[in-house]
Amino acid sequence: MADTRVVPISGIQYGLKAETSFGVGLDSSGADTTAYLTQPVVQAQKPTFNILRESRLLSGRGSVKNAADTVVNARGGTVTMPFEMLATPRTLAQHCLLVGQESGTSGSTLHEMEIDGSSNSTSIGGTISSGIPHSCNLAYYPTAGEGIKVAGVIVSDLTISGDVAANNGLVSISGNYFSGFSNPVSTASCLEQTFSGTWVARESTYFNVLDADTRTLDIDDATSQTFIMKSFNFNIVNNVNRVGFDTNGNAEAYVFPEYAITGDLTIKWDDEFDYGAANNVIQDFIDGDTLSLAINIGDGTVSSEGECNIAAEIQYTGDPGQDISESGVFHSLAFECVQNSSTEAFKITTFKNEAVTAW
Amino acid sequence: MKIKGKISKLHRVNPNTIQCEVAILSKLKDGETVDIPEKAAKELLNMGVVEKADNKTNNKRSLKNG
Prior knowledge:
The structure holds two protein chains of two kinds. Chain A is mainly β. Chain A has helices at 89-100, 281-287; strands spanning 13-18, 37-38, 48-55, 70-86, 104-106, 110-115, 123-124, 136-141, 147-163, 172-179, 190-193, 214-219, 222-226, 229-237, 241-243, 253-255, 260-268, 291-297, 308-316, 321-325, 328-337, 346-351. Chain B has one domain. In chain B, 27% of the residues lie in helices and 15% in strands. Chain A binds chain B through residues 204-206, 208, 211, 298-299, 303-307, 351, 353, and chain B through 6, 8-9, 12-14, 16-17, 46-49.
């Protein structure tokens, strides 16, 4: 008789926990008792093992492939997994660190990640000190004995989005996890794992774009003009590649050859952002101007959960488009972030009263 | 522990997930000072939505005749 078990998608969860040694399982002694940080996703996607499979029709085999002529190689591959969730104080700060590989902390506790062309790691794989550089064990857990542990997990690309008309204005993050530990072994990535630890609960504080007290952008002949915002997106890509291989064929290191940040901003056409003299958004594109953008969710002090400051130096990548709606015409501004003298291409500051080592 | 609410911060707190009662949360949202168990107070302090209230006591003694 067929089995009647059903696995609802909501019955699957996944968690992250920072590694103390690159690509090494935190608890490889049978059931994993690590206290993973539960991630607040609606649907946990399965990790995908991107490994090599050769399938050849060899000479003399006739007109169909032979079972003996295929090769599967788990060494040298990658593991990827998409994610999408509402941003919470810890998840936003940790995912920014996982993609940017840069961290500055102060007080109790500001987490700052900036991309400036010099302070972001160009490779990881050596010693980890106080959670930096930052890689994680990822636990994908449907049920006992069926879990998947992925070691050496970082984020290859991260999108931070806010839209007054989506998710009740709550900021979301999405992207992909990346690992170069594709060969399952007991001490790193592994299958058929039981996770028996007490996982850390999800947070319940979010970031609301309708809470953004500061929204300013340079324009043409004026600086720091306040705009009325419809939406924003920042997409951060670190172009990670795995390099080398250990005795199991897993990665020796990851390299980050280029950090690229692109995005778009949709703001209202009004007297501060128009096609006229001094406030001309088209002129900024034609002149190739570099513009300072600031979006501060909260009062700008970043002193409580749910507050963050985003600062970026942007250049428009195309002629400003139009977003036409019943609320009037909005400018649709596609941009990329660039290092502007000593000002970071992109910087995000969040509040979470936890040290990176707690992640 | 005595804590005082930060008016401009407390609207982000989900009342269903914290350890202090809704009535207390309402007082904090009004910027009032409340005295609640230390565990619940520390949770809110960690979130940055309240601050420790001044616990200074008045040590002045009134002079009595004689």
